[in-house]
Design brief:
The complex is a heterodimer of chains A (about 475) and B (about 425).
Chain A (H helix, E strand, L loop, with lengths): L1 E8 L3 H12 L4 E5 L6 H6 L1 H19 L1 H4 L9 H25 L2 E5 L1 E4 L4 E5 L5 E11 L3 E3 L12 E2 L13 E5 L3 H12 L3 E5 L11 H13 L3 E3 L2 E9 L2 E8 L6 E5 L1 E4 L3 E3 L31 E3 L10 H15 L13 E3 L4 E6 L2 H7 L3 E7 L4 H5 L6 E7 L5 E8 L2 H13 L4 H5 L10 H10 L7
Parallel strand pairs in A: 1-2, 1-6, 2-3, 6-17, 8-15, 9-10, 9-15, 10-11
Antiparallel strand pairs in A: 4-5, 5-6, 7-16, 12-13, 13-14, 18-19, 19-22, 20-21, 21-22
Helix pairs in contact in A: 1-8, 3-5, 3-6
Chain B lengths: L1 E4 L10 E6 L6 E2 L4 E7 L3 E5 L4 E6 L6 E2 L4 E7 L10 H5 L37 H9 L18 H9 L26 H16 L2 E9 L1 H18 L6 H14 L5 E4 L2 E4 L5 E3 L1 E3 L2 E3 L2 E2 L7 H17 L12 E5 L18 E5 L3 E7 L2 E15 L5 H16 L2 H5 L2
Parallel strand pairs in B: 12-16, 16-17
Antiparallel strand pairs in B: 1-8, 2-4, 2-7, 3-6, 4-5, 6-8, 9-19, 10-11, 12-15, 13-14, 17-19, 18-19
Helix pairs in contact in B: 2-3, 6-7, 6-8
Classes of the chains: A alpha/beta (about 475), B alpha+beta (about 425).
């Protein structure tokens, strides 16, 4: 029986980063993955392919709507198969990259479905049904999550799709209804709207992107509406009927009222994700997931000795970078080092246009916690680079402690803000004050100047607006 | 290479001055041999060689200020005698300027113009955050004195603002350019102990609402008691029967009566202490130190005298530990030993009271309508009027007086 220091179940951002870190630290490590390729949801059917489509569809949209304004006359024509193929090519190249990193760091990859079979034992069932047993001093559960389903709306991945199916629609739907105004729904909704679909977003709550700062969410919804997306907030979906003609979706107001029917060619169910622990053999080591399926941990240690859990199967935001940080911390703890994740500094990004990015506390959270704070804001309309690029929509908002000036949160909507939020992550990790950012030289002309001007605004000395 | 590091200096002591190196770079050293003497706020400290070998370099020359964990120098391990290259740069650094690896912060704004306050830290430590740099420069603060709460102990803007507002840390006295010295003058660096005495006395004056009340005490009864029992006391306990023990006892009785004098102010709170750790000021040739007699209320008179004797000896030897000088709740100082007839002692912050004893002098006193000669001593109680009312201070001093004039009261807990 093969023996390991660490056996990791799952090869997504949590699992593969854990495996690489374990290899770096000289641990004998195996990573079990049931997909043919490594990278998990993120790389195969999540973050990465959706960004490939967002990027490509944004070009299409710019060519169609904005080129004329720049003085370029062109009539773009969509080649959907090529757009999907370039996405798949990128994904394939990146999964190969992880395989290379596994080899480089002496990580043994085991194909098949892993399940815990008592303390220190993991059974892997291969595609052919053959089983092998691994002996592990430490088992890391990194099985991730899967799309949540909605009663009465059955996903067939053709007319009614989830986030996976929405990445490879064979044609641009005329009418697309997105159920759920969260990050996934709005990103994929944006892709197909840019390519020509008429998109309606149905959301149970009375707001978009729950968890994000309210002011940002309002501005974001306004921006998407302007682009042609229709929002039906405070509305619940009660059923969906697929036929040859399309899908007819029955909805009604959450507060009660008359039901109505929405017709769609394709319905995208994007109502969130749930932890994936099916068939994992948790009972063999006495682990019981909570009501929502999450595994409770104390610094990645589960209730079972020698069994650890990281990423989407544990509590917290279901984000690849959160899983990645936990992977490093978990393996370092296993190796007797001081692994640590700062949960106050986990950024979030929405890769639409305009982009949305944030880190730290929202105004709503600060109010609820009774924290006295100051706000600094700066619009991209006053930023020279954004202006010349015809991308002047959005703003940056910085929240800082009223007394110590320590940055408590940064929230942005605008061009490329996803690439710029890292500046505030570093600042916050080092407990910086708004003044520290305000007194740090930023290059001119760049959009990043808006980040500095917003920081200046906290203490009332914004200079360029 | 084994580094010679600054040891932990004790609670609330954050830096030390390198007083003397006993070896030069290139000298052979033996493990545990004393290599360097440090002077902290309160005591001297010796640092031994971490290994057998050769003193390779000195990174903190004499006069340098060092912090716990900082590097003093290095010992090349192995056969003694092999000449290790000395670092001329370190040796040539002017005393008091070189700063070996402080925990954090840039050098305090020092003498002369500061062309660019963001200049890279010559001590090789973390540069300050821009906001912190501004605050310490504008307020002439020493960042080394600001406790950092940020990542790896960095100073955040909040830390700097808190230090700015803390009453205990007034802005460092603006260091002006040193004036030229005349032919008949001599410039001598204050020892660390003298600097500390100066700073702490001034801090006490700046912080407390300090006031002194006086009284006088007739020492006849105590002197009679002492004359009667001093020989048998010394034979039994092996320690001389002095006056200090009586005064410590009298003060504890008075402190129990007036708890505010045994309390301290912290922020908006008063901390009352139900323990009686009495500091006894001892003059030494290096300056005044105040070792503490712990739980003096639990000690016999002989126990108190023994404790004072032992601490006094250590103070004069310079071998007091920092722990032996920390945590006093009340202080007694006796200027009488030098002949002082009357004085106003300065509080030993954060304490709220200090008793000044003075010279015993025979004076004509009116007693029951008759002029009689009595051995009299003036008593002074300086107190922090913020928490001790005038009535309480006077009552305290009268209580001390009553216990000394009528020592039976001590016996009866009256």
């Amino acid at each position: 029986m093969a023996q390991y220091d660490v056996v990791i179940i799952g090869g997504g951002p949590g699992g593969y980063n854990a495996a690489i870190r374990a290899g770096q630290l000289g641990l004998k490590v195996a990573c079990i993955e049931s997909r043919k390729t490594l990278g998990g949801t993120c790389l195969n059917v999540g973050c990465i392919p959706s960004k490939a489509l967002l990027h490509a569809s944004e070009f299409f949209s710019i060519a169609k709507h904005d080129f004329a304004g720049f003085g370029i006359d062109a009539e773009p024509k969509l080649n959907l198969p090529q757009m999907l193929k370039q996405k798949d090519d990128s994904v394939t190249a990146l999964t190969k990259g992880i395989e290379f990193l596994f080899k480089k760091n002496k990580v043994e990859r085991i194909s098949g479905r892993g399940r815990i079979a008592g303390p220190g034992k993991v059974v892997v069932t291969g595609e052919d049904g053959a089983e092998q047993t691994l002996e592990a001093k430490n088992i890391v559960i990194a099985t991730g999550s899967e799309p949540s389903t909605l009663p009465g709306v059955e996903v067939d991945q053709k007319q009614i799709v989830d986030s996976t199916g929405a990445l490879s629609l064979s044609a641009v739907p005329k009418k697309l209804v997105v159920i759920g105004a969260g990050i996934i729904g709005l990103e994929l909704g944006s892709v197909w709207r840019r390519l020509g679909a008429e998109v309606t977003v149905v959301e149970f709550l009375d707001r978009t992107i729950p968890g994000a700062d309210g002011e940002i969410a309002t501005a974001f919804q306004r921006a998407l509406t302007k682009q042609g997306m229709t929002f039906r907030l405070s509305t619940k979906v009660t059923g969906a009927k697929a036929s040859a003609k399309g899908v007819s979706l029955t909805v009604e107001p959450v507060a009660g009222g008359a039901a109505e029917t929405l017709d769609a060619d394709v319905v995208l169910v994007a109502v969130g994700r749930r932890p994936y622990t099916e068939g994992l053999g948790l009972d063999t080591v006495g682990i019981t997931p909570d009501k929502r399926g999450f595994i409770d941990t104390d610094h990645y240690r589960t209730s079972a000795p020698g069994v650890w859990a990281i990423g989407d199967v544990t509590h917290g935001p279901m984000l690849a970078h959160k899983a990645e940080d936990e992977a490093v911390a978990c393996i370092e703890l296993i190796a007797g080092k001081a692994g640590h994740v700062n949960y106050d500094v986990i950024p979030g990004v929405i890769y639409t246009f305009p982009e949305v990015a944030w880190v730290g506390k929202t105004e709503e959270e600060l109010k609820a916690a009774g924290v006295a704070y100051k706000v600094g804001k700066f619009p991209f309309a006053a930023n020279s680079r954004a202006k010349v690029n015809h991308e002047a929509e959005g703003f940056v908002k910085v929240l800082a402690d009223a007394k110590t000036d320590r940055i408590l949160g940064a929230h942005m909507i605008g061009p490329q803000v996803g690439e710029m939020i890292g500046e505030y992550c570093v600042a916050m990790e080092f407990a910086a004050s708004s003044e520290d950012v305000a007194r740090t030289c930023h290059p001119h002309p760049t959009r990043s100047e808006a980040l500095r001007q917003a920081a200046m605004g906290v203490e009332g000395w914004t200079m360029q607006a | 290479m084994a580094d010679i590091l600054v040891p932990t200096l004790g609670e609330s002591v954050s830096e030390a001055t390198v007083a003397r190196w006993t070896k030069k770079p290139g000298d052979a050293v033996k493990k545990d041999e004393i290599l360097v003497e440090l002077e902290t706020d309160k005591v001297g400290l010796e640092v031994a060689a971490p290994a057998d070998g050769v003193l390779a370099d000195i990174s903190a020359p004499e006069g340098a200020t060092v912090t716990p964990g900082g590097r003093l120098g290095g010992v090349t391990e192995g056969a003694a005698g092999a000449k290790a290259p000395a670092k001329p740069a370190a040796a040539a650094a002017p005393a008091g300027e070189a700063q070996p690896e402080p925990a954090k912060g840039q050098p305090a704004p020092s003498s002369g113009p500061v062309p660019d306050t963001r200049a890279p830290d010559e001590r090789g430590a973390q540069p300050l955050a821009p906001s912190v740099q501004r605050i310490v420069t504008e307020n002439k603060m020493d960042p080394a004195g600001i406790p950092g709460t940020g990542k790896d102990g960095r100073i955040t803007k909040g830390d700097a603002l808190a230090a700015l507002q803390a009453p205990a840390a007034p802005p460092a006295t603006a260091p002006s350019a040193p004036r030229a010295i005349g032919d008949r003058e001599e410039r001598v660096r204050m020892t660390r102990l003298r600097q500390t005495i100066a700073r702490r006395l001034k801090e006490a004056q700046n912080t407390a609402a300090m006031l002194t009340t006086f009284n006088e005490v007739d020492m006849s009864a105590i002197m009679a008691l002492r004359n009667q029992y001093k020989d048998v006391f010394e034979k039994r306990h092996g320690v001389k029967l002095g006056f200090m023990g009586f005064f410590v006892r009298a003060c504890i009785a008075a402190l129990k009566e007036i708890p505010a004098v045994n309390a301290e102010i912290e922020g908006q709170d008063i901390i009352y202490k139900n323990h009686y750790d009495i500091g006894v000021a001892v003059g030494t040739d290096r300056g005044l130190v105040v070792p503490v007699v712990r739980d003096a209320d639990d000690l016999t008179l002989a126990g108190i005298e023994k404790a004072i004797g032992g601490l006094g000896r250590k103070a004069r030897d310079g071998s007091l530990s920092i722990e032996e000088m920390q945590g006093g709740t009340f202080t007694i100082t006796n200027g009488g030993v030098y002949g002082s007839l009357m004085s106003t002692p300065i509080l030993n912050a954060p304490q709220s009271g200090i008793l000044g004893m003075h010279k015993i002098q025979e004076r004509p006193m009116a007693v029951n309508g008759q002029v009689v000669i009595r051995p009299m001593m003036y008593l002074a109680l300086s107190y922090d009027h913020r928490i001790v009312d005038g009535k309480e201070a006077v009552t305290f001093l009268v209580s001390v007086k009553d216990h000394i004039e009528d020592p039976q009261r001590l016996l009866l807990d009256l």
